[in-house]
Write a structure and sequence with these properties.
- This protein has 6 helices and 8 strands.
- With 209 residues, the protein is α/β, with parallel strands linked by helices.
- Helix 3 packs antiparallel against helix 6.
């Protein structure tokens, strides 16, 4: 299992790296056959004068599934890492739980993997092992209407993998996104899956008039 730690405007000290690796190495105990874990740390100074540290964890499993969790805190790097790991534990639990319920989909753990995995600790055990993860909403608000002045603020290349609609739903849930673009293996076109306010899903299918 490869663990990569990267920082943007964050100095990765030996202490921070040791803290992060100690937390991330434990994930393999609860989800065997993780291929790669990437931790991206970033720091930003908002227009409101706040110092925010973001920790984003991306787990790539040998079966092709990608699990992602991100948390932001007020300037505390270790706290951001701890909260992101806590959220990743919930992603892992969902990944394992879907295998128990469905048993066939590609983005679920196999029975062999479940037999090798340790149970996710309850919250009391987790806090005792990982330290105090104080509650709070660290999601930042929009900085102002001026942010809408630029139509396209960022462009990103997206690598698409062929998958079914069911697999796309599972992958979107594991990523924690509200929408997900994928190449539909059945129709051989690019679709966009999104979560509706009613809690179910919608699918955008391209149509050229």
């Amino acid at each position: 299992m490869d663990v990569t730690i990267q920082g943007t405007n964050v100095k990765i000290t030996e202490d921070i790296e040791a803290h992060a690796r100690k937390k991330l190495d434990r994930l393999d105990r609860y989800l065997p056959r993780i291929r790669e874990i990437q931790l991206d740390l970033s720091h930003e100074h908002t227009k409101r004068g706040e110092d925010l540290v973001s920790a984003q964890i991306t787990v790539r499993h040998s079966r092709g599934a990608i699990l992602r969790a991100e948390e932001k805190t007020g300037g505390d790097v270790k706290k951001a890492i701890d909260k992101a790991v806590d959220k990743m534990y919930r992603r892992v639990q969902r990944f394992k739980g879907r295998r128990i319920r469905k048993g066939k989909e590609r983005f679920t753990a196999t029975l062999e993997e479940l037999s090798l995995a340790e149970d996710i600790p309850d919250i009391e055990e987790f806090v005792e092992e990982n330290g105090d993860l104080s509650s709070g909403d660290y999601e930042t608000q929009l900085e102002g209407a001026e942010e809408y002045m630029v139509p396209i603020a960022r462009r990103k290349d997206v690598q698409l993998s062929p998958m079914t609609e069911v697999e796309a739903i599972e992958q979107m849930e594991l990523l924690g996104h509200s929408f997900f673009m994928f190449y539909n293996a059945d129709t051989q076109v690019i679709n966009v899956l999104y979560r509706r306010t009613s809690g179910d899903y919608g699918l955008l299918v391209p149509a050229i008039p």
